[in-house]
Amino acid sequence: MKAIKITYWVSTSIVSLMMLVSSYMYFTNPMIAGTFHHLGFPEYFRIELGSAKLIGLLILIIPTYARLKEWAYAGFTITFISAAIAHTESGDGAQIIATPLILLVILFVSYFTFHKKIAAEKA
Q: Which residues form the domain of 46?
């Protein structure tokens, strides 16, 4: 049980920290605005996505209903897959494309250990 909790919190913390950093960058870094333009997204989408990432990371780290966490996991999954597709279609390098896919794997670790943790707490 202790290993599951540690794995859950480490993986969840990594995803949450990356979402915090990326949301901050979405709001403050002009290079990110250029990247959104390069990918063909409108300016307002950067603000929407940054706000959604903040809300999602709060839901992941604050104890709340499991159903809300499921929505956060689903939202981040869609975000990471969409980011990989957008960068692939724009002809960006493999390193840029790999980053959201690596985060997706870490998110899956968080998701599965979250469910194992919940099942162990119920038992």
A: 2-122
